[in-house]
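[audit] Reproducing an earlier prediction to check determinism. Same input, same settings, fresh worker. If the tokens differ from the archived copy the diff job will pick it up downstream; this log only records the rerun itself.
[audit] input (974 residues):
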Amino acid sequence: MDRRRQGDYYRVLLEAAGDGVYGIDREGCCTFANGAAAELLGYGPEELVGRPMHQLVHHHRADGTPYPLEECPICAAPRTGRGCRVEGEVLWRRDGGSLAADYVVAPVVEGGAVVGAVVTFREVGARRREEETLREREAEYRALLEQAADGIALADSQGRFVLVNARACAMLGYTAEEAAALTVLDVIPPEDLATNPLRSTDLKVGEALLNERRLRRKDGTTITVEASTTRLADGRLQFIVRDISERRRAEAALRESEARNRALLAAIPDSIFRIRRDGTVLDFQAGGVTGLFAAPEQFVGRALADILPEEVAARGLRQVAEALDTSAVQTYEYQLASPGGARDFEARLVVGGPDEVLAIVRDITEQRRAEGARRLLAEAGTLLAASLDYETTLSSVTRLAVPAFADWCAIDVIGGDGAPRRVAVAHANPAKERVTRALHRSYRPNPDGIVARVLRSGKAELYAEFAAAVRQSAAPDPERRRLLEELDPRSVMAVPLVACGRTVGSIAFAVTESDRRYGPADLALAEDLAGRVAAAIDNARLYRASQEVQAQLAHQAARARALAGASQAFAASQLDLPAVLEVVTHRLVELLGEVCVVRLVSDDGQWLEPVAMHHPNPEALAFARRMMADAPERISEGLNGRVVRTGEALLLPVVDQGAMRAAIKPEYLEYIERFGGSHSVLIAPLRLRGKVIGVLSLARETPGPPYTTADRAFLQDLADRAALAIDNARLYEQARAAVRLRDRFLSIASHELRTPVAGIKGYAQLLQRRLADGPIEPERLARYVEAIAIGSDRMAVLTDDLLDVSRLHTGQFLLRPEPLDLTALVRGVVERFADRLDGRHRLAVEVGVESCPLDADADRLEQVLTNLLENAVKYAPGGGVIRVTLAPDADGVLLAVADPGIGLPPGLAETIFTPFGRAPNAVERQLPGLGLGLYICRDIVQRHGGRIWAESAGEGQGTTFRVWLPCGGVERGA
């Protein structure tokens, strides 16, 4: 442009500037002054031109002492060609008042010679307001320093650290307390001390020194970082350690731009357009927007409508007209698309000449993004602090991030099983919500995907361009790849959620709807947000854990009270076994379930006998009792039998109804059809002194919460207490039975012994009297002696029975087995017994076994057979045939003794084998006997591995006693 137009251009810029600017020649006289300078000094601009500025505005110092001309740095600049910056000096106004100001002096060179200088000054009050604003901002953001992704430290003038944020501590490997005791020299390797930042004495306040350096960690290793060092107004040094590659590129571009700018525009970072009223661009000076366009010549001579989008261009023309018509500065904002995403701009229009304006355009994208980031972080902090239900809150966070920061956002949290779980997802485009939901429903962690890698490494991943190859690796199957292609992510970030050094999840962002591309600044914001989210998750989990612990403690206390109450209830049942069992079932139903059954192991250890049951439905209770009586359970079968065998409680939290129907006894199916099956089952053994005496079964027959392992442990505690209560009641009943048995024994024994004793005594006294009268006839003497012998034999038998019972109870009843032939033994006993029979009874013997060898105690087996024969004679007082048979049976031999005597009343086939157990009809007929013989016989037979039982069709129908013994090598008779 020509010199006149160029001059007009500079004058417009000077008038638009907010700082005071004036020029001086080599003699220090004013060559020009802008409106701001004249106004601040109290002059009109024309009044300053040509006058010596030192004598006019710089003649005294702040303390009132004269300021010599030769010491003035302003006047020295035209002579020396060196500029300077001075802070906090005084300039004098026309009215005699002083003006505290900072100023900058720059020499003006023409043709290689210094012809003058330009002075730019600013009132100190404005700077102080800025400092106050900075202090407020420092206080406002100090709390954020600890969460910053960059390392930040502050050192005093001596190099001692006064502030080190958490990231810097982590980078250097120190704790906060250790870092507080360090100096700058402690973290610089000795060989790098030549670049000690403390020696940068020429580093001015507010200026930043950017360099690459090494830092020494606590463990002695070194790391290479990009560091920004700034000297603050109070002499302290601020260090920011971070990746500044993007800033370096921006600074390189800025330096290239500054090289083309003139001296007065060197500090202006904006782009400047000179525009005519019709919208034609007359001139263009590139600034911060050069990255959006290929070259300046694309603008010059073109209309705004050809350069900008229609709406933006129309608004620009309206603002140009407004500025020209009103001569007032017009300011407006607009947005343009760029390869890196939409960018925001601010345009200030000032009149630059007849029918044209200067448009000063500033890229405010980062400013708006920073403001948006602050809003996002503030709103996220408010959301996260509002509730400890983090899963609901995280959904709100994703909605907050969309669309302000991302088009798509998802949060994954690591569950208790260590696997990630997607808890929140959002998309800005409603049309793609379907795809988002489909991906969410089919979400399966991909071990090779971005999220999985971030969770494993704890490090963020940034994909400014989400290439096709990366998409392929992110989707493990064709369907998810199809959905991912439909979602069309173009730029992606994934950041770990780290709380207390532990990765608890991840947050991912994606651009799917625009040309925006994520960069380091976006990643820093994402990491800041991730830190807040991770802290919220950790706090919520800690709160949940504390609530669960409190609930567990309360539950345990309630269970302890329940156990104590159960023990008291068991103790209050007064040792009555039916009462104890009733209390046990009712208390267990109150505490744990709906149906309770107590089963005890039978005396022979083969069966589980139901002894008590509780059911809320009386009809079901009656049916179940009949059902269990008709279909007894063996100890070797079913779930109850398994618990008895293992001694361990069994938990079936959820019962498969089909499997249950297939596994239970067929007799139980009708119960299930009528009343329903169990939904959850607990079975606990009744343990006592290392032995299982039965089981407690609990079931829930209505749908509801299943039993848990805690319920199983609780039931086992109850079962142990119930077993003790049941055992105490049984012992008490046994003690009472023993007392009754003792009384009965004394009564029977005294009666049975009295009869033979009376006979012996009577015949002895009779014999004594006869002898006193003279000789006794031999026949009568023989009769008396025989009567005495019979009585003695009877007493011997009774005494032997009593001794055997005593030996049984004291464990001294021993067998002396030896090889014998059972067939021969039976034949010998029968022959000897036949000689003792009177004429009323006779024996009929049928032996179908030629030989039956076995190891046995011959005397004891002879005792068994003799006892059975004596009983047959005794309980058949009317005489008759006594039949003895011996026949092979399965793996043994069956011995039977049948009499035609008084028979057994119904239901007494087992009673007669108990101690002192006798049939009522035998007692009524006053047939002698203690009721011990069969009891002893059963013990002898069982000790030989066999069994004995009685059969009778009823009273007067006779009785048959059968003995089965295992016998090897049986030879059948002819």
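[audit] rerun output stored. Observation attached for the diff report: The mean pLDDT is 78.
[audit] end
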